[in-house]
Specification:
By secondary structure, this protein is of the alpha/beta class. The protein is 44% helix and 16% strand. Strands 3-9-8-7-6-4-5 form a 7-stranded mixed beta sheet, sandwiched between helices. A 3-stranded mixed beta sheet has the order 1-2-11. Strand 6, helix 8 and strand 7 form a beta-alpha-beta unit. The radius of gyration is 21 Å and the shape is globular. The N and C termini lie far apart (51 Å). Bound molecules: pyridoxal-5'-phosphate (PLP).
Length: 391
């Protein structure tokens, strides 16, 4: 019989090292404030950048989609699961992203599993930023291609590696757009130049860029004015869009090919009608005006500056993601616990989500926060920071 104690002692070790993840259960919908364990706490953790997860317009669209289409897709896309609703969302997403075509997929995680192994295989090389998201790493591993990691954001290193590793059928450069744990931005303009110079495909994962970067939150490709120049643009509907689901955007050949080859598209059921209905409403909200995107950035600038003034190390984020660097996993866990006791929910993040010795509280600012909310958070950070002698 399998000895489950082995797994229990592994988890005990995680607890001893401050690396065990305690999962909090929400007793209220997503928003600036949450109810957890019967207690009202300020939410500084979720990816609900624009506050759309509980937005009346998206909820109405989801309910209408249920009324019209039902709750489930009934099949994978290639058999009987493609609704005209999916195709409408794909057209509107492509238009929003400035691409020829787009394909919906169940999640951002799946988008990486769908694209990377379809495009590259054993005969190929992948050039991957060393801090790329786990879903990119897994997609790369699944492909069987040789993976060459380049230094984080270091285009010189990328160029050296492109010069060195040439003997492949196909070469793919892949990067996060906005790095989810540090909030820094990939130098996509320079990466595209290198892709053109060395004849390599370029793929970006815009999970934390859409709804955040570029005009009306169109994402990193628009931010750098690179429409039509990035071969593969993938992303998620689960962060700023406030829903769930993923997409791939690119030229019509890429999308047609993926619909033949991408295994999560072929072998996992289609996104559900309410999700797709809500995604369409989210695109409409963003296209209509940039008020929420502006509020998000105002809030982020205000909070980051105030944290720096208090003496916190907030890393080198260029976006609303604000890592409060504590380095030591135990200090970070303790910090998060004390914040929670004082009414602020801000999770500690440690290894393996970030490298060992780089533990932090990752603050996620949202357009749904008021200035009073942010001042309350700053007050609690100051108190706990002094208490734990971090500032
Ligand atoms: C860069 C990146 N890619 C993909 C994902 C996964 O997205 P989803 O939650 O839609 O699966 C995330 C979410 O954490 C992410 O940060």
């Amino acid at each position: 019989m399998f000895d489950w104690k082995v797994l229990e002692s592994e988890m005990d070790e995680l607890k001893e090292n401050g690396l065990y993840t305690y999962i909090r259960t929400l007793e209220s919908p997503q928003g600036a404030w949450l109810k957890i364990n019967g207690k009202k706490v300020l939410n500084l953790c979720s990816n609900n950048y624009l506050g759309l997860a509980n937005d009346a317009r998206l909820k109405k669209a989801a309910v209408e989609a249920v009324e019209k289409w039902g709750v489930g897709p009934g099949a994978v896309r290639t058999i009987a699961g493609t609704l005209s609703l999916h195709e409408q969302a794909e057209r509107e997403l492509a238009n929003f992203k400035g691409a020829e075509a787009a394909m919906l997929i169940q999640s951002g995680f799946n988008a990486n599993q769908a694209v990377i192994p379809s495009i590259v295989g054993k005969e190929d090389f992948i050039f991957s930023d060393e801090l790329n998201h786990a879903s990119i790493i897994d997609g790369c591993r699944l492909s069987g291609a040789k993976i060459i990691r380049w230094g984080h954001l270091d285009v010189k290193d990328l160029e050296e590696k492109l010069k060195t590793y040439t003997d492949a059928r196909r070469r793919l450069i892949v990067t996060d757009g906005v790095f989810s744990m540090d909030g820094d931005v990939a130098p996509l303009d320079k990466i595209v130049e290198l892709g053109e110079k060395y004849n390599a495909l370029v793929m970006v994962d815009d999970a934390h860029g859409e709804g955040v970067l570029g005009p009306n939150g169109r994402g990193i490709v628009s931010h750098f004015k690179l429409e039509g120049k990035v071969d593969i643009d993938i992303g998620t509907m689960s962060k700023a869009f406030g829903v769930v689901g993923g997409y791939v955007a690119g030229n019509t050949t890429l999308i047609e090919y993926l619909k033949q080859k991408a295994r999560p598209f072929l072998f996992s059921s289609a996104p559900t009608p309410p999700d797709v209905g809500a995604v369409l409403a989210a695109v409409k909200v963003l296209e209509e005006n940039d008020e929420l995107v502006k509020r998000l950035w105002d809030n982020a600038d205000y909070f980051k500056q105030a944290m720096k003034d208090l003496g916190f190390d907030v890393g080198h984020s260029q976006t609303p993601i604000t890592p409060v660097m504590l380095y030591d996993a135990k200090v970070s866990t303790e910090f998060s616990k004390k914040l929670f006791e004082s009414g602020v929910f801000a999770q500690s993040i440690g290894y393996p989500t970030v490298p060992k010795g780089k533990a932090r509280i990752r603050v996620m600012i949202s357009a749904s926060h008021s200035k009073e909310d942010l001042d309350f958070a700053l007050e609690q950070f100051k108190r706990v920071g002094k208490d734990l002698k971090v500032i």
